[in-house]
């Protein structure tokens, strides 16, 4: 089979590197194009990595000598069927325009940026939760006058740990009107150089700019429905979030309390629903789909970032400590790998889904 | 003035050492007696410190050559008007009996242990919140047939950060029926050797045995009222807690969401109430009383353990990030030093209060 | 092929767990017997793990239901051709006697303990350096009156990082009379619970009991020669060591300065010798042999524990920063994984070597 | 007494903040002028602190409303008798010119920068070691045509821990021709934001740009002698250094091996020399002089950053673990606070010395 040529926008950053690492030997996709800021343009990828190779393992030989393009030079991505977008610019509007330019050039854009997350007809996908949101793409293309190009986004990494467990219960017929969550987030979420070590040695920082707002708002779009070509946010849920930065390299942990609606599940039922939960990625047996999206731990002190972030290729969500809550109904702890499941791995899974839905084709 | 002679039970442990450090040059009290487990008994304090001096500064000369007694040898404490109890034993009943034996011997016991916290006529004191609970002591003495001895306890360190801010609002006339709290607790809370470093390098442990139960239950006694010689827990409040261990040496941080009753304060009112709050320790100008019990920070990323745990002799509570909560009414971050305010410093403040109330006298 | 049945002595500890993890699916060996302290004896392995599964991945199903034997019950190991010994006892003489008892029972003992390291006819093996030292075994067996049993040890983990690079130069014909080394050692070297987190948050401990002595003495035996049935330590080398504990989970780093004898290699020659170095494990293509035992990094800030400890199944030594030394001739940085290369993985490699040399056979 | 008005150049950085913190209530000096980069110029100091107050305690009220000047605007410092220079610029030549401009304007410059360290007639002072080097100032002023202004520098923070102990022995009549040192340096040495937390969680970085060269070269100037108006480096000492960054906030630790010349001291003599050592700052009883410049610890696991960095106002050097070295004569561990003794506190001590030598006078 001929692989789909893909590009990485923002290839030198931490998430860009994760994309490159994870896409080595991918069965559907092949990285053929790398783009970054003007300061990297024209250099080989190896020399453009001014902070070095920051992720696991060694820089794959297959990309080390690719010449990096300027991300603003959309024409240079010709030949790519899709790009994974993980670049940064001072203004969100700049990112949005550039992502639009790639789409206008016929390229599918799978973005990690928050720029397009509130665009009403851009689907924000968690592959196990709302794969059907990809159906909006023809309408998105029509509105923009795009041919084969389109834009898909993934949500913020802070909510990846607890949203699938919550959805599994909703899908099983239980309403969940209230979720209160406190996150303890890893420093890799801020990229490199990111969080100064002086802030993380013997310390916790109880603030991450913009994170609580995203965590409270984005799930409503994910749980929403498309109506007349735009997503209408779900109205039946309120989320309250505290987001903290802790001295952990990878893996966001969340302490979650939630209330059921009238119909309430008991403890064993909840665990069973979580363990049995499978989504479209599992049905389609997508390469990056974890076999079991939600892993429940019976040990009283799990999940922990160090032990559980890498579960099932770092794509599974680990949960534990389900117990009654004295104010809401239940509380539990959830954990997922923020730069894999919550960033590059999640983006790849979305692209795999789009590929199998026929949205990505070699011309 | 002649100082009150005091003993430290559990003198070699981490909290015992904090008592010794903090009592050096105390205006009311003088450490004259040290007791620990049989393995330390008979040694000088310096040689009994098998793990060394674990707290700030150097071991005070004044105690380094005191010979350590066996904590089970109550008679050896003769001459002490009060003891600070911070010893450990396998069974809580053992601790309780031994604390009772000291009280029976005419000695006031200020305990950090959880053994007596649920004894109905043992007051659990946060000096700024329920100093009037000390009034139960004559009744406690009568019931036990004790003369000058009695037992007073302090609550768990996990709740010291947020309970005073909550109380300040209650005192100002606002009901607070619901509090949801997630703590990020320092390793010193588990003593020495305590938490293994393999669990704290690049990790968070979302479980501390017994901690959530204490955090949810103890405030109800503190806010309760004495009726017919026993404390009746406050019925108007529900607390739900998640307790986590994080790689921080000292300083417990709490993310708190709370609901008001019918009467609701606005953001500026709450801040003003917190800043203006003063308790009996401040009125009496007790040596260990922080001048301002609640320090509000306007910076959006404070309080932080590293910057704020030592505020006002490590006795003040630091709060910040007060903002509306989408489910309850408000949320904020609170922090206090767990081995000072939450342990030895809090115990000393309680003893100062008892002293000024006339409960401790030289014979 | 029928696999060799092996036992793990000290199976519940950290190194014991690493053995179990690494031996899952081993081509020569199969774990059929687990032994630990009396408190674990009689329990299934899963329930005997009172501190849980501490190493990577999940507890292998194949061993989780094995019933753990008392390590003092040598007869229970009947059926094992070899045991990997990683148990602890208060006295070294106790460990020595027990290891002897296993050998006397016809079982080959590959030990991680330091108990037998100074026994004159017990070979201390680094498989790439002194594989020929295994030739002493018939003599060892004869002296002890053992039949098929024998004892082999591996050296301390602190020297695994720099000793192979030093040996590679010696093998290439360069004398190295002086090595000065400062180590920065990971906490996993002290097992679990091991180093308290209070000592490792915002701190370095410049002392590890007994470590400097081992680091200075053990290489002399490894570089020594067997004469009349005992190893005579190498006399042509002096080592001086400073050993420190740093807040790193796995991976010992060493800063090394060394002097050549009269014949001196230049910088490029040294790098070439290191990169080209191969030993007997590589010639025999042993399962646990790293393809390239010494990996040289040209980046100026490598090797680093986080990036390099897992190189080539965590069995390769990573080195870098080779540069002239103003007092000796050269200095460099070396790193190896202490619980894999420096403990369980090194032990397995030694057993593989013995197997291929015909010292281990199914009866 | 009227205090000497002083300015801080680079006031918003980490070292600048330490100067401000340490100079609050100084008996000789009063901070009256703050300067920083153009982006801070014109703002009050409080608002110019874009990263907040990074050092201990709270921002002193006395400076919080001072308006920050552009550091390039030398005229704005008029009225200052001296400035502490801790600003950064892309090119060392720029720093040098600007420091010269302040000196030309009649202001004494005490610099933390490395820009002027190799200028032959600029003294590099450790107040306990070479206070007599200040005698070169008239000659420096004459060469430059400066009136009351001059430039004094302090050495790199990496050598502050072990240089005074080495000097104490030299002063007592022992030659020390060889020192081999491996440092484990705190992240505060790189300022803020400085070292990324991704490099310091579960890691060590065995490289600090330029640090080893400074550590090997600067002591030779400090031990040198002024001849014909320039300092001739000391020729009787060779230093070899490995410099590492470790996950510690403050406090550089050094593992040191050294050789004596022909005359050798024994272990007890060395300890006595260290404990008895006093320098000119102690004789003059300077405000920032530690009472005992070298504190020797008998505990086998000291000094440690967490316990010892703050010894005697963070101005004392802590040493321990003196023991014979198998290659050189002795080895030991040394520690000092890098941003106090090794930066701002050391600079202040130098200025106090100059003041008492009559080099700083109110006009």
What does this structure look like?
The structure is a homotetramer. Chain A is an alpha/beta fold and about 375 residues long. Chain A folds into 2 domains: about 5-155 and about 345-355, Rossmann fold (3-Layer(aba) Sandwich); about 155-335, Dihydrodipicolinate Reductase, domain 2. Chain A is built from 12 helices and 14 strands. Chain A has helices at about 15-25, 45-50, 60-65, 90-105, 135-145, 160-170, 210-220, 265-275, 280-285, 305-310, 310-315, 340-355; strands at about 5-10, 30-35, 70, 80-85, 110, 150-155, 180-185, 225, 230, 240-245, 250-260, 295, 315-325, 330-335. A 6-stranded parallel β-sheet of chain A has the order 3-2-1-4-5-6, sandwiched between helices. In chain A, helix 1 crosses helix 12. Chain A is globular, with a radius of gyration of 20 Å.
Summarize this structure as a short list of keywords or feature phrases:
14 strands, 6-stranded parallel sheet, 28% helix, Dihydrodipicolinate Reductase, domain 2, homotetramer, 21% strand, 363 residues, Rossmann fold
Query: Please, how many domains of chain A?
Result: 2
Helix content of chain A: 25-40%
Total number of helices of chain A:
12
CATH class of the largest domain in chain A: Alpha Beta
Lateral arrangement of strands in the main beta sheet of chain A: 3-2-1-4-5-6
State the secondary-structure class of chain A.
Answer: alpha/beta
| Rg of chain A, Cα atoms, Å | 20 Å
* Percent range for β-strand residues of chain A: 15-25%
User: What string, H for helix and E for strand, traces the elements of chain A in order?
Assistant: EHEHHEEHEHEHEHEEEEHHEHHEEH
